[in-house]
Amino acid sequence: MSINITDFGCLADGKKVEKYLITNSNGVSVSVVTYGATLVSINAPDKNGNVADILVGFDKLEDMVEKTDYQGVVVGPYANRIGNSAFEIDGVKYNLVPNENVTTCLHSCGEFNTAVWDAEVTGENSVSFRYVSADGINGFPGTLDVAVKYTLTDENELKLEYDAVSDKKTVINLTNHAYFNLGGYNSGSILDHLIRINADKYTPVDKISIPTGEIATVENTPFDLLKATRVGDHIDDDFEQLVFTGGYDHNFCINDYDGSMKLAAEVTDPDSGRKLEVYTDLPGIQFYAGNFLKGVEGKNNFPMNKRSGFCLETQYYPDSPNQPAFPSCVFDAGEKYHTETIFKFL
Ligand code: BGC
Q1: Which of 149, 313, 317, 327 could form a disulfide with 175 if both were Cys (CB 3.0 to 4.6 A apart)?
Q2: Whose CA is nearest to atom 5 of ligand 1?
Q3: Closest to 24 (Cα-Cα) out of 208, 159, 190
Q4: pLDDT digits (tens, 9 = 90+) for 189-198
Q5: Which atom from ligand 1 is nearest to the alpha carbon of 80?
Q6: What is the pTM of this model?
């Protein structure tokens, strides 16, 4: 086990950014930078022991600043979409800043991922990142004190622990927006990966990706991923939900949600033999198949093409602040938010 700290450059305002590299005894390594508490690389061996970086994203700070589509970042205070950029708590309406389709607030306008977080080594294999979000940024109520701790174990588990507390009653929904390609960031499409999502239900959306409020069965739909399924098998089916979003970009309702850790999803790349398991104590997981990646150049100037990476974002359901039937993401002033997600590499 080791942790190595290096410079990762400077922002235009002179703020310094550092990179923390955690390596375990199997040679698996993970690096995270203080800009956005962003995951920058995950090096993992394939079936023949060949190590590759399986994280699609950037290797340069300026690219992260200029070209991000949320690659590897921590999203908050509210991940994914809030419809009409507004919600009410106890009869008080909070108006947010819209940043998509004129009306929607997506990923909280990127607040958390454009901040430089304070970092602290918290163990031989863990680093904790802290950020305090001021009251009222983009319209969200409360000063929110957030910590995200990354731990890499010798079981090849990358554990993310999210802690937050606000001084006002507010909504909280934190996630990591890593794009994976188990063949390596430069190996092409993810359509041959096999995915299994432990969800009998999902939340359908309207034409602008806001949940309709329905919790629908996956049965007899392309969303039935209960058994390992090739990502490409149904992604382009003429099925309204997939047409709306241009491929998988939906929240799945993890079976038997009770706040304890559950295996939410697993993905295998038959070529490399690499496998990823995702565990979480949250109720939902967004399977986004990288449909909107448009060939922007990332690591080593390799283009991030459509569907060259997939995201599994553990979360409260999108637009929960406006959906009474969804698990509540509202936290009282002083109430502790704590959730965990594990990405396990096999
Ligand atoms: C959303 C996608 C969006 C992507 C990048 C995902 O969480 O579901 O619709 O394109 O983030 O912003």
Answers
A1: 313
A2: 69
A3: 159
A4: 999 999 999 9
A5: 7
A6: 0.98
142/302 Cα distance (integer angstroms): 40
Q: Which atom of ligand 1 is nearest to the CA of 79?
A: 7
What is the strand order of the sheet 51-53 is part of? 2-10, 16-23, 29-33, 38-45, 51-53
User: Tokens standing for 91?
Assistant: 């009869």
State the Cα–Cα distance between residues 61 and 64, nearest whole angstrom. Answer: 5
Mutate to test the pocket of ligand 1, among 107, 241, 244, 293 (most ligand atoms within 8 A of CB): 107
Whether the link from the prior residue into 77 is cis, omega within 30° of 0, is yes
* Whether 70 contacts 305, CB under 8 Å: no
Other C-beta atoms within 10 Å of 32: how many?
A: 30
Q: Which residues contact 337 (CB under 8 A, 6 or more apart)?
A: 162, 163, 164, 165, 172, 174, 331
DSSP-based helix, strand, coil % in the chain, nearest 5:
10, 45, 45
CB atoms within 10 A of CB 224: 16
**Site residues for ligand 1, CB cut-off 6 Å:** 69-70, 80, 107, 209, 249, 286, 288, 292, 313
C-alpha 163/C-alpha 130 separation (Å) is: 9
What are the residue numbers of the active site? 177, 313
Q: For 15-44, what is the mean pLDDT? A: 97
